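Supplementary Methods. Inverse-folding protocol.

Structures were first reduced to a discrete structure-token string of length 102. This string, shown here, constituted the complete conditioning input.
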């Protein structure tokens, strides 16, 4: 049987690793959104005279997000699978060692 202090250490380490994976996924999502916005603004400048964000701009932005997400799908999918594995491991650890969620 694992000592309570060691269980806490292991669980904390697992939680930190999961948070880091989630943070990395969030960084990618923010990078995609920022790049899509820059691309949309560049396209708006070519049309000239557009003073505010329009439905056309929003549609173009969403198209850019979709394209950029598709381009990084391998990385996003790998991180999503890793998050799933980490969540399952944490849940199994808690169950096996009878540790409740904080």
């Amino acid at each position: 049987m694992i000592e309570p202090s060691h269980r806490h250490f292991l669980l904390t380490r697992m939680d930190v690793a999961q948070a880091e994976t989630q943070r990395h996924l969030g960084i990618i999502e923010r990078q995609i959104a920022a790049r899509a916005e820059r691309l949309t603004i560049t396209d708006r400048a070519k049309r000239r005279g557009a003073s505010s964000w329009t439905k056309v701009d929003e549609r173009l932005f969403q198209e850019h997000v979709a394209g950029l997400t598709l381009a990084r799908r391998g990385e996003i999918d790998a991180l999503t699978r890793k998050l799933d594995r980490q969540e399952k491991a944490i849940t199994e650890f808690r169950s096996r060692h009878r540790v409740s969620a904080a």
